[in-house]
Amino acid sequence: MTAFSAYLVVVFVVLSVASARNKSPLIDEEHVKTRNKAAECVFGKQVRELGSQWIPDLGVPIGVLYCMKCECIPFQRKRRIVARVQCRSIKNECPEPTCEEPVLLPGRCCKSCPGDTYSPDVIQDIVPQNIIEEEEKSVKHYAALLTGRSSLVLKNEAISHDYNKNNVVATGRFTFHKKNLHYSFYISEKAARPRSLHFLDSEGNILEDFTLSHPGGLVTSLYQNATRKVCGVWKRLPKDYRRMLKQEKMYVVLIWGAKDAEFTLSGQLMRYVALATEQFSSLLEPAPGTDPTLMAGTGGTAIVSISTSVSSSLHIAIIFNGLFSRDEILEVLLNVTLTLDEKKQTILQEDVRVHKPATNLNLVELSSPVTQAQLRLLTRGRLLLSISSASKPEALRLSGNVITKATCELFQTTLSSNPSDHNGNPYGTSGLAWMYLNNQGSLIYSVQIDSLPPKQYPIITLVDLSTKRRTELEDLTPYFHDGWANGTLDKLSPKILEPLYNGKLDVNVAVSNYTAIHGRLISKPVADARDAAAPILLKRENYTLPASAVGLAWISVDSDCHIHYDVTVSGLGTDKKLDLDMELYPMIAPGAPFISKHLEEFQDNQVEGSPVEALTKEELSRLDSGVNFIKVKERDTKVILLTAIVTKVKVPPPCRAPYTDNNVPTLFDHPEVVSTGECFYEDKFYKEETSWVSSREPCKMCFCQNGVPKCDIMTCPQLDCPTNNVTVRGECCPVCVESLTNRDTTPQKCIFNGRTYSPGSKFNPFLIPTGFDRCTECECDAKDLEIKCTRLNDNEKTCCKNCNKSTVNVDNPMNDDQVPLIEINYPPSRKEMSMKSAELVLMEGGCKNLNNPVKPYHNGSEYHPFIDSLGEYKCVTCKCQNGTPKCQRQHCDSTTCKRMIEMRRKKITINTSDFCCSLKECRKLRHRKNRKPHNS
Ligand SMILES: *[C@@H]1O[C@H](CO)[C@@H](O)[C@H](O)[C@H]1NC(C)=O
Ligand SMILES: *[C@@H]1O[C@H](CO)[C@@H](O)[C@H](O)[C@H]1NC(C)=O
Ligand SMILES: *[C@@H]1O[C@H](CO)[C@@H](O)[C@H](O)[C@H]1NC(C)=O
Ligand SMILES: *[C@@H]1O[C@H](CO)[C@@H](O)[C@H](O)[C@H]1NC(C)=O
Ligand SMILES: *[C@@H]1O[C@H](CO)[C@@H](O)[C@H](O)[C@H]1NC(C)=O
Ligand SMILES: *[C@@H]1O[C@H](CO)[C@@H](O)[C@H](O)[C@H]1NC(C)=O
């Protein structure tokens, strides 16, 4: 049999078995909606790198095909190189065994003898999957200059040789990290956003392509619109391409216009030392008044950095072409100037020499000391960089403003309290911050703060951590509203940039005298998930988790309908293994059918990616308009640690499903669907008339009234502590330190209304529908762990200090979730007070009295329940225990039964309820007695 027919036979067998399952990686290859990436293979649910080999595993019922070998091979389709899976049988490649009795080892295709080394089923050159080579962990920087002249380097017919009459210039910055290549472009203002981007090899073959804009489409990314940059990422470069990049043999092409009237610019990805410290960039274009013929197709880019080690100095690297006359071939003198644009005031003027001019690419570098005032001008984008020919300065000159670094990046952090400070953050205050620089050098920032203590106004500052003094640089709180400080720092101090780029800038939030949260800003490239409008704050699931636990998530859906996510968590410790899950609900309603998706496992405290299997249109529709949650769970226990509600993911219309029965219009279209009588609060449903503690703020209690959650925040009764007081995690009010000193391994606590209280703590009971009763003080008695409540005189200062206000915390800026705070009117009316004493009994663990609601049963008391037709029903005895009646029916015993039977025999009418026994039960009792000897 030839190799070819063997392949056919095997594939035929596989196909016929697989068609029953209607899903097999071998045949589904063409249909699976992959991520539209040409340079990798998708087999089953796994992404395979170009060049990798594997033995296919088709799962149940086929299993592993040991005599097949698959490979992800490159394949030329016109100018494009695409990857494709190729599988073949290796059975007839098996070497002839050299011994008499060869054996077939498990997991092998070929029989072998002891000592045989070669076998085709041992894959020799597998590219390891998901293993990042050591050297790829470090970040590598590349840059490209795209001009009419640099485009000529690629001598490919398909690339237009337009001399670029409008002299459009573009420059790219590339960072390669962990197999991913992030790209950023600055393009002449005279050009629109390009249609697409290609990465090419030196032959002009397309290695990968990206769509940058759709016809007539606006730029949906806020960041890219605000900065005019073009941002994105090429994920998982195959090994060969990584090598190509390293050897500077990779090119980029930007393409404008329709297919038949294309305009392109291209350039080569090169490494420059200066890129590692780049803080500013410049795009250099032919200066006004220069010779258009001599300057055709020319341009440049500058990499600018500042060092402030001893004194401030400026370093400029300029990559350019043009500027040379035909006769200038060696040691050509050029003139570099940096001027204040309007006033033509010269900041820097230096002559540089080019040893051997090249048509497409030249590099000059210079350094110069600068003053603080000059740095400030630089930071604000006011300086113009020019480079001109010394011989013909008027005709041959390139110039451009020095502006924010061309790389697409933002800075982000979670904000949380110090994990070691257990009592410093009783409200579980947390938050997030992100910011970026626009082209004018302004810092655009957004800071979100959640669960602020009542009536606190935070002070948010940027702090430089690189100096010992921890200098406060800027105040970000001239404006704080609804938990957000959004703003722009226009006149940015140059002192901010260096710590910002070096990861030494802290966002510090002083919440109150005793609480502070903070986080250090980290630079992240803008692409995929991080190109969404705003990140989402993940909050701890409930207050039993440390107050420092917090997360930041970015979620987006691209135009190919793939979801991207990037989640960073902090304050959960380093020992936990974490998972990221997503739950998609069509609307908020109890029992709504939800789709649960496991997205990915965390690596340390971060997870970034996109599921291999695309989401279905229904799932994407829910993502777009439903109510969704992302949850960070502990992998082994499945305990939910952090959650966030996700409502504003923009899904491109073609990715969404039309309405179907299963995909009903949502809450936001039809608010009536939620009127189920249950309250939805902090990701949970609560029944009407029930109360609960906010899972995130231990001082906030809520109850459900007519389907609307209403909340109140407790002000703790004053304590008289000999020394100091502390707040125990999960509790609202502090206790004196003394009462915690002799605590054993399992501290004893009072339990009241489903909440625990440390001995010695004081609190106000929570009543429905009025909220915390500030005129009643309860205490957890340290001796017998009982709750003792005292009603304060209305005139007592402690009570009325809080009572006089008609509303509580109306000015609380953090009225999160739009839950109304209860209005409390004081002093309460007489009727309310009598109601309250009944309710107080209930609060103290008493039980409802259906016959007389004003007189509930006290906690611990025994009673007979009241039954409408019978009155008090003596055959049942109840004991009220912490709000729940535990009831027992009296059992028949033989004495009672004997008496009943006796009376019956004497024809005396009996009322069985007087005996709490029926004759039927007596017969049963006798039966059981009689049967006993048989069973034993
Ligand atoms: C894009 O930027 C322009 C100019 O900065 C601004 O006027 C416009 O509103 C922005 N568009 C969006 C969608 O943000
Ligand atoms: C460089 O330019 C400056 C200002 O444009 C001029 O004063 C200076 O003479 C020039 N230097 C050379 C070597 O041409
Ligand atoms: C601040 O910005 C965020 C994110 O863009 C937005 O959700 C929020 O509503 C803004 N808040 C205010 C008060 O402007
Ligand atoms: C907290 O700060 C406020 C104002 O800044 C001050 O009046 C008050 O005394 C401080 N309280 C404590 C306990 O330090
Ligand atoms: C807090 O969350 C954990 C994990 O989900 C759960 O086991 C525990 O019962 C929750 N506690 C409260 C008070 O909700
Ligand atoms: C706890 O102590 C602080 C200062 O040590 C004091 O301001 C506060 O009022 C005390 N809290 C209570 C509830 O007594």
Task: Report on this structure.
The chain has 14 helices and 57 strands. It is mainly beta and 936 residues long. It has 9 domains: 3-93, no CATH class; 133-271, Immunoglobulin-like (Sandwich), CATH 2.60.40; 275-404, Immunoglobulin-like (Sandwich), CATH 2.60.40.150; 408-526, Superoxide dismutase, copper/zinc binding domain (Immunoglobulin-like, Sandwich), CATH 2.60.40.200; 528-653, Immunoglobulin-like (Sandwich); 679-712, Complement Module, domain 1 (Ribbon); 714-830, no CATH class; 836-889, no CATH class; and more. The longest helix is centred in the N-terminal third of the chain and has 19 residues, at 3-21. The protein is globular, with a radius of gyration of 37 Å. The structure holds 2-acetamido-2-deoxy-beta-D-glucopyranose (6 copies). The site of one 2-acetamido-2-deoxy-beta-D-glucopyranose has 5 residues, from strand 17 and strand 18. One 2-acetamido-2-deoxy-beta-D-glucopyranose is lined by residues 541-542, 544, 639-640, 695.
